[in-house]
Specification:
25 strands; Immunoglobulin-like; 4 domains; alpha+beta; seven-stranded mixed β-sheet
Length: about 375
């Protein structure tokens, strides 16, 4: 009887201790869930080892900020927007980020990192310790050769393998196919006619072929006398070809050197015979032209973008954003997206596009569609 009573007393004490320990934990979890919770985390891997992370968080609009652990302490191109696509402020602290939600109900965090992947002897490895359920989209045509645990599920999206992982320490090894997925060749440069009068049109054409296996885009850039005259973007499937044409005119007599990719040619603009103009009409024409030039110079001077004022009015701009704005100002306030990519080859293509879109959201630039390409212009 005494043993039974002692056993009951011990069981009651143990139950009391467990309840006392679990109540704060449950309270913390409940409070955290009321404040915010991660809805999804997607990792998109690229062939060069770069990982783009997209994390969607649902937030209690009554709290001013949230703190999240990052998947890596080495990140770049950080962007946080709310449900209305407005940019949110944040602070970095090692491998954690504080996002100032300020009444938002949803926060989408995006960043790039190259520290989650490594490559040895042609084998890529993704090493990841995640506190979240994670969706991993491997590079196109990647083949998994090792995975340390069984994932929740494996799926195929087009030519990508998608892994759904539970919170754990993961190591996934994969190999990429030999040979380029996308490879473009430019051939058959044609210049017609190759001799014209000032102002007459010249047609320049090339044949562009995607000799790779997958669909991709290519910027066809036309240079005249070493300067970019025009650019067009083509999208071709593997093995597909298309003819790209440019139409230009030379206003001054002389030889015009043409360059498209590695192809070179030329056309000639002949000297025009000077018109015979009576002296009085000649003076009138000179006065009219002078007045027009003065007006145009005045308009140009007033419309010239003041890059120093733009940077002063937006002191939070990062250095790469300022560099892009300075490049636009030096290029008469506008440039093709392809020109910006060639000027800043160190910035990944997707990161540069997000940078431009951030400047557009801030009202600093505007993006205008011209044919298949985009022109980025400073707002005057």
């Amino acid at each position: 009887m005494r043993l039974s009573m002692k056993r009951n007393i011990c069981e009651a004490l143990i139950l009391t201790i467990l309840v006392a320990v679990s109540i704060p934990a449950v309270a913390n979890v409940t409070a955290e869930n009321l404040d915010f919770h991660t809805e999804s985390v997607v990792l998109t891997l690229y062939q060069d080892g770069l990982v783009h992370v997209t994390q969607v968080v649902r937030v209690n609009e009554t709290i001013p900020e949230i703190n999240l652990p990052l998947l890596s302490a080495s990140v770049s191109n950080v962007l946080v927007i709310d449900e209305n696509k407005s940019v949110l402020d944040y602070e970095m602290n090692g491998s954690n980020i504080t996002i100032f939600t300020l009444g938002a109900t949803k926060a989408t965090l995006e960043y790039d990192t190259a520290s989650l992947t490594s490559m040895e002897a042609g084998v890529w490895t993704l090493s990841l310790e995640s506190p979240y359920n994670v969706t991993v989209r491997l590079p196109e045509e990647a083949e998994v050769i090792f995975i340390n645990e069984v994932p929740l599920s494996i799926n195929t999206e087009g030519n990508r393998i998608t892994l759904y992982l539970f919170p754990s320490l993961w190591e996934i090894s994969y190999v990429l196919p030999i040979g380029p997925l996308v490879d473009f060749k430019v051939t058959n440069l044609q210049i017609t006619p190759n001799e014209v009068k000032p102002g007459e049109e010249v047609t320049i054409s090339v044949l562009v072929t995607n000799t790779g296996r997958e669909t991709g885009s290519y910027d066809v850039v036309l240079k005249i006398n070493g300067s970019i005259e025009d650019a067009k973007t083509v999208m071709l499937s593997g093995g597909e070809s298309t003819e790209v044409k440019f139409r230009i005119s030379g206003e001054k007599a002389g030889i015009y050197n043409v360059e498209v990719a590695d192809l070179k040619g030329e056309f000639k603009v002949k000297e025009a015979a000077p018109p015979t103009v009576p002296f009085v009409e000649y003076i009138v024409i000179i006065l009219v032209i002078s007045a027009v030039v003065i007006v145009l110079l005045f308009i140009w001077h007033r419309r010239k973008p003041n890059i120093e004022k733009i940077i002063k009015d937006h002191p939070y701009l990062r250095q790469e954003e300022r560099d892009v704005l300075i490049f636009l100002a030096e290029n008469d306030g506008k440039a093709f997206e392809s020109e910006i990519r060639k000027r800043f080859p160190e910035i990944p293509r997707t990161s540069l596009w997000r940078l431009i879109r951030r400047l557009e959201k801030e009202g600093i630039v505007k993006i205008r569609k011209v044919g298949p390409g985009n022109i980025v212009e400073l707002n005057k």
